């Protein structure tokens, strides 16, 4: 009886923590969207996306750590976006943001080793804030460079899996050895039941092919084993999320510099997480895709504003910036 009661309390406690993490993460995301876009429509649209985000909602009733990790990663994402969109902030406020983000990144890394893309994102956010003029000028080039670097990483990864002796740091890490074995068996989804298999990799091109297949699996909104409700929710989320995220990137020059910087770092983060997991492990329930959800929601809100009133964001940024106010006084 005691064991049953403790188990029930533990399950209830984890579910409550899941809801707390989900609520705080959603609030932080919406608050950043409010400050970045200054748009009620953007906030409403983002809230609607949260309501149909099946990738998040399916994990709430389970005794799993995915939503807690999601809460940590979302806090880092929102702090990073807040950081890159600041023009001239108070030093104490900046110091608090830097300290809070750095502590959360360390906690996330201790929580799960797969937080490495989050470390890269936070480093990029700090570098972006320090080098704002360069980012404002070369933001699109950085996105293109990140895409090229992602493909090069996939090619190098394939070569190392095919030729383990090419690993420059001694013996091949255990996880890469496991991935190499799965590729040779044609297994592209880790521990799937029933197994999900493709043509086995027999050469470097085969290893590249399986990584690209894993990447497509990672981003797809639809799979044959999904229920009708799950498929519908995913389509309601990912069709506008992907479409408007692409709009944010393609309409980058329509945005004010702070919004451009936010779109660039969020776009790089989505690319980082997707390629990182495609080269290592992906799961049939898409648990590793969860950290991408708030990034897509923020990108979508920015993309919505770039599409519906592309001149407004730039004019708002000019009228709100301290430099413009000083110029007017002068």
Report on this model:
The protein has 330 residues and is mostly helical. The protein has 14 helices and no strands. It has helices spanning 2-37, 40-51, 54-57, 66-84, 91-111, 116-130, 132-162, 174-185, 204-219, 228-250, 257-279, 292-308, 310-320, 322-329. The termini are far apart.
Quick summary:
By secondary structure, the chain is an all-alpha fold.
Name the average pLDDT: 88
The first-to-last residue Cα distance is 77 Å
The main sheet comes to:
none
The succession of helices and strands, N to C, reads HHHHHHHHHHHHHH
Strand content: under 5%
**Distinct helical segment count:** 14
Query: What's the number of extended β-strand segments?
Result: 0
**What is the 3D form?**
globular
Layout of secondary structure:
Elements: H1 2-37, H2 40-51, H3 54-57, H4 66-84, H5 91-111, H6 116-130, H7 132-162, H8 174-185, H9 204-219, H10 228-250, H11 257-279, H12 292-308, H13 310-320, H14 322-329
Helix pairs in contact: 1-2, 1-4, 1-12, 2-12, 4-5, 4-6, 4-11, 5-6, 6-11, 7-9, 7-11, 9-11, 10-12, 11-12, 12-13
Give short descriptive properties of this protein.
single chain; 330 residues; mainly alpha; 14 helices; disordered C terminus
